[in-house]
């Protein structure tokens, strides 16, 4: 596949994304929420979660049980610090948008609060949700499971999802400290991009059906991906299975795959928000300064803070131009036309 990057206006990309999603059957509100997430990722040159996701998102309507128009419900009556959002088998992003104001309010009132999103299809990156909470001055942790594609350390059969976790720490007047990574050695989106583009996988990230190491994305798709960091990544992945599954009354990755083997997994998502002002009180300036000293100690020795490359890309694309792979852009332009042929 042609890997040349071209410049596309953000407005043009937004219009095309909305056209594709609405043609596929998504309601206006869902199309807007999905487009916002996709454009945000593309602006940061997070290609695996940007415009490319329009393909899997629309195909999932044909292969899975996604409701493209369901309106989520939000309930804050379970307990003061617990908010529940039922996505009603729709894409999760609109449920997060609807529940976020109450999550922010409860976090500021109580010092911390949790949002459980149930019955959702989550296909996007987690950092936009974490960053949205950091923009409100909150510390955020976000976790979700996926389909069982990943083998545990020492095993060779899928048991975990890619099970990403995101964290955001607000930095007044500066972009937040953010990380978002799958507990698998690579994200599933990266495997799919390698398969589409005919590129080999890195060594040590997957095994084939027989449990042998492989760099062939096709063989890996039939076998299993691996966790990062051996047993440490495996334990972290198991924790996310429990936190974003049984704890909030939702499915594990294996249960999700058994329920719906479509391209987008149905599962739950847990979002934890903490208010630094409540935790730190009158000593907030002192402790926030200590946090900044930590960041300074990292970058002063030439190390990079997580998301630094995304934030540089965001600045580079701040004038409304997005960098998009040319073949992908052509494929997306052809999608609405294909529906009318």
CATH homologous superfamily label: Malate/L-lactate/L-sulpholactate dehydrogenase, NADPH binding domain
What would CATH call the class?
Alpha Beta
- The 3D shape can be described as globular
Portion in beta strands: 15-25%
SS element count, helices: 13
Question: What is the CA-based Rg, rounded?
Answer: 20 Å
Question: Main β-sheet, in a few words?
Answer: 7 strands, mixed
- Overall structural class, as computed from helix and strand content, comes to alpha+beta
Total domain units: 1
What oligomeric state do the depicted chains represent?
A: single chain
Please state how the strands of the largest beta sheet are arranged side by side.
Answer: 2-3-4-11-5-7-8
What is the average of the pLDDT values? Answer: 93
What key attributes describe this structure?
341 residues; alpha+beta; Ribosomal Protein S8, Chain: A, domain 1; three-stranded mixed β-sheet; 13 helices
